[in-house]
Amino acid sequence: MLSDQNWLLSVGTFLPLVGVVLMVFVPKHDEVTAKGIAVITAAATLVIGIITLIKFDYDQSEKLQFFVDNKWIDVISSRYIVGLDGLSLPLYILSMIITLLVMIYSWNHVPSPGNPKAFYILMLVLQVGMAGTFIAQDLILFFVFFELVLLPMYFMIGVWGGENRQYASLKFFLYTMFGSALMLVAFLALFFQTKGADSDHGFSILRLIEEGAGLSRNVQIWIFAGMFVGFAVKVPMFPFHTWLPDAHTQAPTQGSVILAAILLKLGTYGFVRIAIPILPEGAKAWAPWIGILAVIGIIYGALGCLAQTDMKRLIAFSSVAHMGYVMLGISTLTPLGMNAAMFGMVAHGLITGMLFFVAGSVKERYHTLEIKRLSGMLKQMPKLGWILGFCAMASLGLPGLAGFWGEFPAILSAYSPAEGLNETLFRVLMVIAAIGTVLAAAYLLWLYQRTAFGEPTAEFAGHGDGHDGHDSHAHGAHDAPAVAVAQSVGAAANDDDHHSDIHDVGIFEWIAWTPLLIGILVLGIYPQLMFKVLDPAVQVALKAFKAP
Amino acid sequence: MWFLEHAWLIPLIPAIAFFGIIFFGKKMPKGGSEIALVAMVAALVIAGGTAKQWIDYNDAPPAESATHAVEGAAVEEGAVAEEGAHAEEGAVAEEGVATEEGTHAVEGAVAEEGAGEEEHHVAPVRHTWTWWESGALSFTIGSHIDGLAVMLLLLVTFISTLVLLYSTEYVRGDRRFTHFFASLVLFSSGMLAMVLAPDMSQLILGWEIMGLCSFMLIGHWWEETANSKAALKAFLTVRTGDIGLLVGTAMLLGIFKTLDISKINEMAAAGEFESKKVLMWAAVALFIAAIGKSGQFPLHTWLPDAMAGPTPVSSLLHSSTMVVAGVFLVARLYPVFHVGLDINLLGQSFNLIAVIGGITILIAAGLAFVQNDIKKVLAYSTVSQLGYMMMGLGVGAWVPAVFHIFTHAFFKCCLFLCAGSVSHTASHHSFDMKKDMGGLARKMPVTFATWMVSTLALCGVPFISGFFSKDEIIDSAKYNGYTVFYYIGIIGAGMTAAYMTRATYLTFFGKARGAAAHFLGEEHHDEHAADAAADHGDAHGHDAHDDHGATVAHGKPLPFAPSDSPWQLTTPLLILGVLALISGYLNAAPLGKSWLRFEHWMISSAGLPFGEHDPMALPHPPEFKWMNTVPGLALVALGFLVSLFLCRGLFGDKAFALKGLTSRNKLAGAGHKFLVNKYYLDHLYEKVIVRGITGPISSAAYWVNQNILDGIVNGAGKGGRRTGELVYKYVDQGLVDGIVNGSGSSARATGGALQPMQSGKVNQYGALLFSAAAIGALVLVIVNS
């Protein structure tokens, strides 16, 4: 019964390419058609995703479902093997959702220098790469998808980015490339070490999981090191993170959202799917180092946030801290930690994705993200202010919102790591990680206090949607949205000042954001929704390790 | 049993109301306050039903109570067997206890005592669902009903309802009226969820939601920086304590392999853990969380600043309910603390909880003397009383400490609401006692009377509620061998009487000043009127309402000035005043054993049997003797008298030798300054720690990031490029260049706007890196094969 709908994954992954082909024939000036095709394609892809979600057998989420195993590149005995289990399902679906929402958001937010056709094509290609990475069960296939992601993002940043886009895109590209190179080395080494040439499934992850454990500890440690660098750059882990703030700051909003929501997860997913199950001894040897670097990342990322003067760069740095919790969970090699990490990936995708959306909208309205110049957002744009507050709370790990379920179990798990790991070390790491939660609250709420609270700064005052209080009547609390809209329309019509575009959340923003906001809330209130899917698969991935 | 099994509705209803108010509140005729009130009343009714059924259940615990409790539970299988086993254990333990309690049985009524033995082992009524699982670990959400939970459910819903009613008038016309009510019901929901928690993860959920609401409500008037700063400070200080909560919870999971509160308590009480030392550290970690939340020394500094929020918030969150969460945590997991910290061990005269509680009592009471803001006096008083509760738990007086939560909630909530009533009606939103109050007793009979009752209750005057709880704590400290804390307790009681006398005198007696003079019609001509008018806008930062100055009604033109606040304000005052008077009789030890109803309902929640000097057992409550109360009462009386004398001298009209002492005498001046600066703790936190982290430390980290880490990356890039140039020039021009240009031009074609200058380099880097990687791969393969 598992092979019934095995076309689903391939169609779900490659469908965006159909859209790309169609869009090639659309003339460049016909922007609406191009955008329309892209959005419809992304929506159709998501429909396939939802069908996958429905057909998925949740009682066997530890098994690879919709499994396909076809010939591909015989010369190196690499095969087209795809499958989906509880580990990949959430991320696979998340990538589809994020792409569609980003496209909807882009409808009237195509960044300069325009050219929506090319922009949307890149997003579709990106989607193929992301989805493919999460379903690939063959290392070469995985690598191809993993690298496929790189190019569209490189162009997105390099073409549609901010002032310093050349440097940022180059750095992003090369840094990741450098990691990928080592990763490929590790894959090849694994192939040769396990006599992959003798098998017709040389790069099959399933085969390697069986063979890998048999490798000597030393070999495992070396190969793991290669993978480690490859994945760690992508995560990014301290000290390989320096490409991230630049890439995020320079990338257009859409790029930042996709980067934060999905691309960073390729690295952590690689650890969970490939490095750890295949090389258990290597993982054990490296786990303490991963844990240490993760915790350094938590504290260091938070301190970096506190030093920022730019809102977007601050959010970018917060990713370093948050991915630190994910990596801490992974480094414990326990089911609890791994579940936390997987949950944390999705939660971080939703929350930080949302934060970048908000940052983009702030930039669009104020033409600056400098924290000093922003103030009183709640007054000028109450709804945007509330959304920022909601996301900040989610990001700092408030229980009841999704972020908590990545952080809390990760901290719990660090108290008793898998057998063979140094308990004392991990307990110290746990305490430091817990201190990190305070710093997270500090930088997020400080950001919120400076940008959302207070009165609008003089330079932007008087252009807002919200009531200014001074002129409101006794019942000022009864904000009438209709009046606010009328005001802003009036302002837009009469006022040729460039600040006149300070308006509250627009319709495309609502459509793009609502699913994310609901996701953050629902996963926060009922985490079992996801833990139920993850847990069996996590148990399988960790079967080589003994729980404490 | 319906209520006992459906108690989970109590937090759920306000939670739903929160969303209702947020989304539809502004469209409602009363701005959402009606949703809030209806929801709270509904929750109150269910809480009342639960309390009634708990009392019945507690009096006659059905033999099959364990199975009964689980029948309703949807998911808990397996638990049946466990709870059954627990009941048996209980039965065995009972016999042991019965002999030890022989001394008690002599005086008590036999029937009463019979029930008393039973009551240690009344199993909680639980109703749970799986909330999240990981492997064998399963964490639940739902309700866990026992005496402690029921008491707080009733308390929180009751006080929330009164405060909501009060707020409908108090924040009427506020610019964020709807949000205010939304935050209040969300807070109640969070607190109720915490109180009901069967599992640590639900407890943390409620705990943090309260923190969020506290943040939102303190910063309610966030236009002013002072308010938003206070909100931030409160959240971050509590969050600092929460490090302990996270770490402690992780340790509990490590020790007991579960986060189920009942199971943790049972195992801790039965000694089923590997290492006592680890348990001790878990208790310490959890206690740090309690320090943060309950404003204990040294993390108490956020609580007085939290008074920047509207007064109903101060009275609900920051005095009667939320801030007792830390005390609740200790009371809820009492076996963990009791066993972990060896409370009641023979010869122990100090432990962490008692010490922190004791210090808090004294330092907070000291600070209450130098406050001019009436709400800050009450805030420090709250801190000090929380210290009593904590100290009570530290000296093994579980029941009195929990009882003090109960009585304190009524009188402290009432005091805050009185302060709000004064400010709302008489002093024009000012809380400055020295500037804008005085002489109000004449014009505000209801406010004054309820204030007086509550003050006497707070001071522990006999036969009023506070006496019954506070005196028991003090008495237990002495009886259980914690002599130092006995002295701290009575000194603290004297200080309480003194600072409350000062506050009462400044507010209600003497000459009316500022806005109060205006209100009482005594100012006519002098410049006070101008002062008061000028103050409206800015001077009174907190509680500056929107309708300031705009509405004449608040200016109180004298002939029409009402004699007291409107009914929405006075009704809660009267109800709370009456409860402040009588609530102590639920556990009135001086009147004999049969009056100890509260103890009878609560004791099974402590999770420990009675016993002599054994960390695994609660100390017996001391026998009440009037003689023992004499030193404490004498100090209280002394506090009243000295303070009254000083107040009349210092704040009266006549010349007084001590007037201006702080400016004349260096020592007194230094002491005064030390107090005014709050022992310089805020300086340490804000100027040293926070500024250090946000300033130099984070800048240094960022500098390292930009110059060292990134420097390496950029250096590697540059070095690579230089090598590339050399290679390009001398070695392999044709081949590399060919590939490079091929991919480069295709890249350019796709990107369109990419600058050609840079793209050439990309290719060089890429090619270089890949060739380096290929060489590396070869080396790796050769080395390892």
Distance between the termini of chain B: 72 Å
Q: What number is the mean pLDDT of chain B?
A: 79
Tell me what portion of residues of chain B adopts beta-strand conformation. under 5%
Q: Classify the secondary structure makeup of chain A into a structural class.
A: mainly alpha
Question: Looking at the structure, what is the overall shape of chain A?
Answer: globular
Approximate helicity band of chain B: 55-70%
Total DSSP E strands of chain B:
2
Number of helices of chain B: 34
Rg of chain B, please? Answer: 31 Å
Structural class, from helix and strand content of chain B?
mainly alpha
What oligomeric state best describes the polypeptide chains here? heterodimer
Poorly predicted parts of chain A: 466-498
State the separation between the terminal residues of chain A, measured CA to CA. Answer: 36 Å
Low-confidence stretches of chain B: 65-120, 524-561, 750-760
Quick recap of the structure?
The complex is a heterodimer of chains A (548) and B (785). Chain A has 548 residues and is an all-alpha fold. Chain A has helices at 7-24, 31-55, 88-106, 116-135, 139-148, 150-160, 165-193, 205-212, 217-234, 243-250, 253-278, 280-306, 311-331, 335-366, 377-380, 382-395, 404-415, 423-451, 481-494, 507-525, 528-541, and strands at 65-73, 78-84.
